[in-house]
Design a protein that fits this description.
Two copies of one chain form a homodimer. In chain A, a hairpin with a 3-residue loop joins strand 1 and strand 2. In chain A, helix 1 crosses helix 3 and helix 2 crosses helix 3. In chain A, 27% of the residues lie in helices and 32% in strands. Chain A folds into two domains: 78 residues, Winged helix-like DNA-binding domain superfamily/Winged helix DNA-binding domain (Arc Repressor Mutant, subunit A); 167 residues, Chorismate lyase. Chain A contains eight helices and ten strands. The interface between A and B is large, with 45 and 46 residues. Chain A binds a DNA duplex (21 and 21 nucleotides) through helix 3.
Chain lengths: 261, 261
DNA sequence: TTCGATTTGTTCGTATGTATT
DNA sequence: TAATACATACGAACAAATCGA
């Protein structure tokens, strides 16, 4: 499937920004607006450059940045595509729980394991103060909440409590959510054209309450990890607010910091 | 201060890698080897390109990647410099504890606060199994261990237990560590030419033991965060193994995930 | 299997703009 | 102002991957 040229030709903007950034914005707008769904191919570089009245080098620089941000993917000999995020790489980009490494094995790579997912609930509700703050809504705006339990090696390890705007995900049903093939973020993208690009997390240690104890099968009061995550799309717009409660008796929550900003 | 040209001219390597990657490797080697210390300026682009017999565009592409990895910094009109990491940006890149946001204030930015640091100990020891695994040493290799307590707003919040290779940090003394002006990573860089580029972390929730209770002033058994961090330099070589114990009653451990790899 | 068309990847070079000193 | 250095923009030529005839 191909994206039409008309959709990105204008390039009226000036504002002092470099040309390649204006081009990048144009491309980004075309993607955000959902006119070109994930997986679709862009026209070839020469064609886009001609249509936008910029040199091919300038276009390539714009595309370079979008590739770096994982918005586009280039494949030599094939073309340039809007990134698809239903793959392993993406799963493990945001799902970061691993079995505790055994000192006897050093830091040998552990076999990556797919979590087993169970749906624990689905309801429509109104945003509270915390939801509103995290999702940039007003208190009382309609939201959808649902709960998942993730298991690794037959053990319940993570309880996710997820809140999203009902307006942003109009028509989402429990069945549709339960029947999804891939990750939740992949569903956001394929069914709603919403691409999760970043996530902010705040982590703390708390004592397991009654509900957590029940869901994860741990004694009440046991220390568990609580991760509050806000997932963001273009323009740092909040998409999802998620509270994950993690049993770290046998697993670790892993992350990789880099000098990026 | 300027870096000599001789130090990076060869460019003998081939191996099928693109030219700009070979150039990048050359530059990286020159920096790793410590021949050019952090803060120093590279020769100007035209000069380097000529010395390496590549076009200026190819050189710029190599430098682009190193800038992206925060190894180099470009300043228009001034030159290109080996990155210095003693600044705020760097501090908060790896120090990620913030006061718990108050729901009443929404997500207003909290005033960034510098932690107050106390030294709690310094000793020379031999690597155990865990140290050896994390630092890629042999058990029994000499190591240095030291402890810090970090306070925010007058409250003890973080206890760091740090282990480094005594061979890599030859001649490091308690006084030198205590008298440092800036962060520990800045000392690694300015005194030993070792630049920390990334860090891997494994986080879990545990109950405060007797020692943690004493150091952080919390009741024994209270859930606290335990972060195991391995700091890495060029070539993912381990530099430091650090276990941070964090009181998350009033603070959060924050991080930002992106779709980078 | 081979070949050719298509598309991105790499390398080169030049000209001009902008920030710094 | 002038010199220096990086930033932006253009475009040409060829290499390498992909795919279908």
């Amino acid at each position: 499937m191909k994206i039409e040229l008309m959709e990105l030709t204008p390039l009226t903007d000036a504002g002092g920004a470099p040309l390649y950034r204006q081009v990048k914005q144009q491309l980004q707008r075309a993607i955000e607006s959902g006119r070109c769904r994930p997986g679709h191919a862009l026209p070839n570089e020469a064609e886009i450059a001609r249509a936008m009245h910029v040199s091919i080098g300038t276009l390539r620089r714009a595309v370079d940045e979008l590739v770096h941000e994982h918005v586009l993917v280039r494949r030599q000999g094939k073309g340039t595509f809007v990134a698809l995020h239903g793959n392993d790489r993406f799963l493990f980009q945001f799902f970061h729980v691993e079995p505790r490494p055994d000192a006897r094995f050093g830091d040998l790579p552990q076999a990556a394991e797919y979590p087993h997912v169970e749906s624990l609930g689905f309801e429509r509700d109104r945003a509270g103060e915390v939801d509103a703050g995290a999702l940039r809504l007003k208190t009382g705006d309609p939201v959808i909440r649902f709960d998942n339990r993730l298991s690794l090696g037959g053990r319940a390890v993570v309880h996710d409590h997820i809140t999203i705007s009902a307006l942003m995900f109009k028509g989402l049903t429990e069945k549709r959510l339960r029947d999804r093939q891939s990750t939740i973020y992949s569903l956001y993208q394929t069914d709603y054209g919403i691409t999760v690009l970043h996530a902010q997390e705040r982590t703390r240690a708390v004592a397991a309450d009654r509900n957590t104890a029940r869901v994860l099968g741990v004694p009440m009061g046991q220390p568990v990890l609580e991760v509050h995550r806000t997932a963001l799309t273009f323009g740092d717009k909040p998409v999802e607010y998620r509270v994950s409660t993690i049993n770290t008796q046998l697993h670790d929550y892993v992350s990789m910091l880099s000098k990026r900003l």
